[in-house]
Amino acid sequence: MDEFLQAAIDEAKQGLNEGGIPIGSVIVHKGKIIGRGHNRRVQKGSVILHGEMDAFENAGRQPASVYRECTLYTTLSPCPMCSGAMILYGIPKVVIGENKTFLGDEELLKSRGMEVEVVNDETCIQMMNDFIEKNPELWNEDIGV
Questions:
Q1: Could you report the per-residue pLDDT of 86-144, keeping only the tens digit for each?
Q2: Is 141 a catalytic site residue?
C-alpha cells in the first residue's frame, strides 16, 4: 500500500469516526504531506469541506509553483468542485483510491493535462459501499442529489 494513499484512508476513517462521510485526501509535495483533510461537511455544517477541499484548506496559502509540483491523493473520485480546485491550482497528478461507488470529473482532469491514476483499492471501495448502504440520504446530499 502506498504510504500517501494510506494517509488519505486514515483521514477518511477519522472523518467516519467523527460522524462524517469517509472520504480523505492528502496533498504531497516532494515526498512530504503539506496538507491533509477529510470530508467535514457534517462536522462543520459546511457546504464545501469535501476531503480534497479540507486538504487544500489545511495546506494553507502556497505559491502556485508549489501546487504545480504536487500530487493529490484522494480516497474517492473527485467531484466537480474538488476537480475545479485542482485545476485552478495546477495540480499535475491525482491518485484516486476508487471510482466504483462514485465517478467524478476524471475526464475533465485528463482533458486539462492532469495525470489521473485510479487504484480501485478494496479498502476504499468497501468503506464507501458500507457508508452509502447505511446513510443513503447523507450520501445523496453530499453529491448534490
A1: 999 999 999 999 999 999 999 999 999 999 999 999 999 999 999 999 998 888 877 77
A2: no
Strand 70-74 with 24-29, pairing: antiparallel
Please tell me the distance from the alpha carbon of residue 123 to that of residue 144, in angstroms, as a whole number. Answer: 24
Q: Quick check: helix, strand or coil at residue 93?
A: strand
* Cell (9 digits) for 126: 468497501
Residue 136 grid coordinates? 443513503
d(CA 47, CA 136): 18
Query: Is the distance from CB of 54 to CB of 27 less than 8 angstroms?
Result: no
- State the pLDDT at residue 143: 73
Which of 3, 11, 18, 52 is catalytic? The answer is: 52
